[in-house]
Amino acid sequence: MLKPLRREMTHMEDASDEELVRKATCGEEDAYRQLVARYKNYVFAVIGRQIGDRDTAEELAQDVFVKAYKALSHFRTEATFKTWLTKITLNTTRSYFKSRRYKESIQTVSNEDVSIPEQGKLVPDLVVTRDLLSVFQLCFGALSPLMQDVITLCGYQGESYEQASKMLDIPVGTVRSRLNRARIVLKECMQSKGAL
Amino acid sequence: MSREKDFLNYLDGTLSVEEKARFEEALNEDASLQSDFNNYQRIVQMEQEKAKEHFELDERFVSRVMAEIKYKPSLFRRLLMEIKNPSLMLKAGFGSLATVTICFALMYGPEYQAYQAGISQPDAIVSTDTSEASDMKDTQRAASEAGATVLHPIATPKAEKSESQIIPQSKEASLDSRALIGANESLPRRSETARSDLLTGKPTQEMLLGPGLSVQQENTRWDLGQPYDHYYGRHIVESNTERYGEFIENNPVLTSIEPTSTFSIDVDTGSYTNARRFLRAGQLPPANAVRIEEFINYFDYTYPTTKGQDPFTANFEVAPSPDGSGTYLLKIGVQAQESGYDGSEKPWNLVFLIDVSGSMNSADKLPLVQRSLTLLVNNMRQGDTLSIVTYAHGARTVLSPSGIEKKSQILDAINMLSAGGGTHGAAGIDQAYKAAEQAWIANGVNRVILATDGDFNVGTTGTEELIKLIEQKRKSGITLTTLGFGTNNYNEAMMEQIANKGNGNYFYIDNFSEARKVFEHDLHGTLEVVAKDVKLQIEFNPEHIAQYRLVGYENRKLRNQDFANDKIDAGEIGAGHSVTALYEIILTGTEAAQRLVTEYRYKKPELKEEKSARESNFAAELAFLKIRYKEPQGNRSKLLNFPLNRNVIQEKFTTASSDFRFTAAVSAFAHLLRGSQYEPELSFSEVAQLAKEAKGEDPHGYRQEFIELVQNAAASRR
User: Fold this and answer.
1) Which domain holds residue A189?
2) What is the pLDDT of residue B86?
């Protein structure tokens, strides 16, 4: 009895997320494998656009899926799997930004950047040497976590306000106003660095 | 500041007409507001710029995640979770409750003990799967009943049926399984009989593949490097529906017995890319998926070309084997002239034949096909024509032959493709050849390009019948290229054979960079055939060479008498392509040759005496290579001769050219992957080291990738 669960890869590809989650909760690894295959690029993109470093992003994406698997039994069907997964993803990046590892990585970068200029030589403005997008990324890092999330979802990922409000658990109006506020802060930040 | 709220409203288009007009008016009047708004817009633009950044992860990632996950729910927990699920409760109602009760009862029964002791029935699972795969509707229905199946797989009539279909002897077992529901006493007996039946009575090829298919799948090699999933009691890699043609490796031949070796060239590379897919996922490919010559020919080697009348040049190199066994390797490189050696580029008439059956509905299949074909379209020139035929339940001409000036129409047609339905491959092939005939270009390249996962399941399904169909079509002068995509039910045996019979070539495309190799870097060679039916015959001089072994080319070997027979089909070579063949040889007078002699106790091939029979004229020759080929439109073969002088022998492996050393590494790797009986005494990491030292110039990074693959293999062997 309880023969090992049969693998049903052929129709797993067509199965809905909910069905796959249910199967995965029952211990069917292939169902979860299918979910990972389905959302790997999405999660990777959400993280990657916030962090900007592909290797770290890949590592974090892996963490996200492992976390999600362990928490799968807590998943309630009120939200879609994607929404739920996005919440985990955003939490993971947030805790990464708080982590010692991240702070150390910034430290090493800024140490490299600091070089003592020779006397009488003009120091080119940092902004001139880097391109616009990297300044943008820099200013993005200075935003509050919630603003970062809103920009990531609505600005980068092209999610609708409704979707984003579900993923972030805030009202739609707040999403809009945060997005607007975030853009203004970004604009001011980039102006202050002379990039606009 | 308050006006900035309007920016978002304006961009989102939520303003009313009047508000919009008022806002635009304010913008025109107030210069500072305007610059503010422009900056705001630039931020939005930058967001969109970021949104275009490409983020993609390959299959390896999925495998890594799955390997990370250690958490496994206990049996009890799984049962609880099943009960907890309300939708299932509603669906199954009392039936589910009853089943659960039985499950509980059985949990303490002898079957559970047996299961815990590791007695499970992996083979039974494999066979049931395969039979059900042929019947899509039933499988889907089974899926909806999955809840019940999970708990009690043997109790559903479907499972019973398929078991008895596949293993006729196991009637007793299925009877017993019926009894199982009522009587616990019969359990141990069932598990024993069923198990012995299922293990010994493996399903035959006919059962698995349908009548008429001579393709075989080798299961035994899977055990070697595969991780074993103790939880499910079977090997984790379970691509049981992928099919590979079986072949036996070439044996060494004594020159005194048969000095001549004949084979057809092969420029396919699909075997390498397919194996790469396995290795990237951290698995070893099945032995029959490794064709050594395709591994070797995947890489570019620099051979000198001469602008002459002949379409080929031949290059030789001889040096000791890297494993120090005393044998030597003879590398023969045949280089075809670059395209347009006669000063003209041929126009193309291409027909894309695209499999849009349900099985193609996966990220690494149809979307990749579309991207690949877009790439090809972008590389087409004025005067080329193109048509698109798709097949699912039936064949459909999506785009009738159109010139490249209708590029946007062509790209639209490619983008509109979507997958769903059966796989009526034969009808598709028929219609594609018709489209090719319709747009026939007399002095050009007329070619059908088939993109599929190789799974034909409606209509002419047997490989042999399909081959007959294609051979018949080949005579009309239209060639066939096959592009393999995807995993799981990939049918490589079919892909390689039909390309071979269609005077074409076969590629396996596992990612976009491979598509770029085929459709950008090597495009002319892929499409423009410089010579067809190219056969190689090499005669070894017994005075210098005691024994030889052709590495790879198992399914391309020809009988010696077929060399001059123009009716016998052989491989094609594209513009600028090169073909490399490797012989493992034993030189006379070396230690290895001495060993060879002592192996024979009763019938000694007297190597020294045979020297008297030599012809002193050819004493300096090591071997003699003959190449026969036909011009692309010709029917009569031409002959080229290349003598190979003894002085090409190099004393040390390390002094050989980097191409030679790299070939040796590739060959060693392929042998190791096959688990070949002739594998060199090298480890994967030693092979990686060899390849690293021989990397040479590597403009496209293919060799670097190879080195990484070897390292991957070393890791998964550990």
Assistant:
1) 125-196
2) 58
